[in-house]
Amino acid sequence: MPQAAKILVLNGPNLNLLGRREPEIYGRATLATIEAACRGKADELGLAIDFRQTNAEGELLGWIHQARDTVRGIVINPAALTHTSLALLDALKAAELPIVELHLSNPHARESFRQFSYVSLVATGVICGFGVHGYLLALEAIAQLVKANGKVRRRSRAR
Ligand code: DHK
Fold it and tell me: pLDDT digits over 39-57, tens only?
């Protein structure tokens, strides 16, 4: 049986507070619930996921640096770093992987400072406004991208 493609699912600052933090905007599901839903979806799609959250920008950048050689794609909810981090944009560019940018809320319908995304400049596509379901849509999207990529680019390392 072929090895499942590995996907990194990243969550940025404050997303550890999901369920308690502004539930009218971000919903009542906790990050643990979201991770469990992602694991179920990944199994369905034949993907292996590495699901992580950090409040530290440097840690997030380090994970992205490693991803270049260890995974086939990245799903990222960069949270507030979406709108502020040029370093995140550069790290994602350097990863040279398919990237799905994800937001629980629809930042375009919110404050003006949320309407610019550094990450969108490098993302293959963006999913926003669908709450927890967005994570499942993002996994479907990355599965398609990885499949399409595999057809044109075979790499020797298993990842
Ligand atoms: C999460 C955050 O923490 C915000 O800073 C972003 C994003 C939106 C979300 O909707 O998942 O602006």
Answer: 999 999 999 999 999 999 9
Residue 157 placed within a domain: no
What spacing in Å lies between the alpha carbon of 105 and ligand 1's midpoint? 7
CA of 106 to the centre of ligand 1 (A): 8
Question: 27-47 b/e with 16+ CB inside 10 Å = b?
Answer: bebebeebbebbbebbeebeb
Write down the pLDDT at residue 150: 80
**CATH code for the domain of 49:** 3.40.50.9100
The verdict on pTM exceeding 0.85 is: yes
Here the tokens at position 23 are 């539930």
